[in-house]
Amino acid sequence: MVLDEWKKGLSVLWSVQFIGMSAITGVISFLPLYVAQLGITEASEAAMWSGVLVGSAAFCAAISNPYWGAMADRKGRQLMVERVLFLFALIIFAMAFVSNVYQLLFLRILQGLCGGVVAASTALAGSMIPKGKKAATVGMLQTSLIIGGAMGPMLGGFIADRFGYRQPFIAFGILCIVALGVTHWAITEKHSPVPAVDKPSLKATFASVWSVSDLRLMLLVQFLTQFAIHSIGPILPLFIQTILSTPNNLASISGSIIAIVGVTSAIASASMGFLSKHFSHKQILITASLLGGITFIGQLAAQDIIMLAVLRGINGLCIGAMVPSSNTIIAFLIPESKRGAAFGMTNGVALMGNVIGPVSAGLLSLVFGITAIFWLTSILFFLVSLLLFSKLEGRMEARP
């Protein structure tokens, strides 16, 4: 594949991952408000249900990602991306027409089970990028997930405030159809299926991945980072409601605050090439996790939206530094022959952070109030920094 072809393919897959992540996270900014419209009017119960709805989709995605990654190795990565986008579109369309939270929960579970777009598209990108360019493009591809995770809630909140809480689902469904069309006509994969005798079982792949100590630690970093990103989302509109004097445009404000994290994360991720020339990955990860813990505590003291936005922005810088650093290390450790299944495994572990974070937020809000999740997330950031300082091997300290 000539240089121009792989760059074109990478641009398309960047857009596909951006749209897929936007569709996954787009409901966060208004989900508690949509739940209230479906009959759950008590604030603590709405927070609990929002956490369950977000966490259930992420849990099922974590389970299904290894399957989609392995199927991408066997059937073709482009085909799997297209299938997942088609299923995504149908399910998201259906969410606009639910009449109660149980129907919405069922569809969120289905969405999670069909949530292998990241694993399949990452594997497809890995098969297209020249060997000498793989490490350099990991951070760039990662920004699609960060920005998509930020812009999705902002777009969803904007549409919800102006057109109602059901219309964002229709908009995201249409975006998935557009991404499907672009993938089908703009990419031509030259797929060589793995011979049956060489196909590793998922159990063997998991054992192989889990046997590398540095990789285990990076998976833990990704898990805790995703926990930090997604733990606040389900209760953020309710937390902002306690700061605002008037509830006008609450979904849009919540979406914008979530978007700030994505924008600053993308800035930090794009700056990793410069940072990694002057600091080791270990130094970057430890510093970012310490600062992340401090800023999560600081958000509890925020007296207005501006202060909250600034602290969330600093949070985003920390997360944006941690995610690509850990992914860069993982990229060097994953064997070529197991890329699809292995990326499915790593994405699955990271997605468990997406599961436990929102569910923890919902349950803690129900028992201790909506501020409890800020304390827990801060403690987890400090735990990450301690583990990185004490356990990350010296050979990973070297600057690339």
From TrEMBL:
<keyword id="KW-0472">Membrane</keyword>
<keyword id="KW-1133">Transmembrane helix</keyword>
<feature type="transmembrane region" description="Helical">
    <location>
        <begin position="284"/>
        <end position="302"/>
    </location>
</feature>
<dbReference type="Pfam" id="PF07690">
    <property type="entry name" value="MFS_1"/>
</dbReference>
<dbReference type="InterPro" id="IPR001958">
    <property type="entry name" value="Tet-R_TetA/multi-R_MdtG-like"/>
</dbReference>
<keyword id="KW-0813">Transport</keyword>
<feature type="transmembrane region" description="Helical">
    <location>
        <begin position="80"/>
        <end position="99"/>
    </location>
</feature>
<keyword id="KW-0812">Transmembrane</keyword>
<feature type="transmembrane region" description="Helical">
    <location>
        <begin position="138"/>
        <end position="159"/>
    </location>
</feature>
<keyword id="KW-1003">Cell membrane</keyword>
<feature type="transmembrane region" description="Helical">
    <location>
        <begin position="165"/>
        <end position="187"/>
    </location>
</feature>
<feature type="transmembrane region" description="Helical">
    <location>
        <begin position="250"/>
        <end position="272"/>
    </location>
</feature>
<feature type="domain" description="Major facilitator superfamily (MFS) profile">
    <location>
        <begin position="1"/>
        <end position="396"/>
    </location>
</feature>
<feature type="transmembrane region" description="Helical">
    <location>
        <begin position="366"/>
        <end position="389"/>
    </location>
</feature>
<protein>
    <submittedName>
        <fullName>Multidrug export protein EmrB</fullName>
    </submittedName>
</protein>
<feature type="transmembrane region" description="Helical">
    <location>
        <begin position="314"/>
        <end position="334"/>
    </location>
</feature>
<feature type="transmembrane region" description="Helical">
    <location>
        <begin position="47"/>
        <end position="68"/>
    </location>
</feature>
<feature type="transmembrane region" description="Helical">
    <location>
        <begin position="223"/>
        <end position="244"/>
    </location>
</feature>
<dbReference type="InterPro" id="IPR036259">
    <property type="entry name" value="MFS_trans_sf"/>
</dbReference>
<dbReference type="InterPro" id="IPR020846">
    <property type="entry name" value="MFS_dom"/>
</dbReference>
<dbReference type="InterPro" id="IPR011701">
    <property type="entry name" value="MFS"/>
</dbReference>
<feature type="transmembrane region" description="Helical">
    <location>
        <begin position="12"/>
        <end position="35"/>
    </location>
</feature>
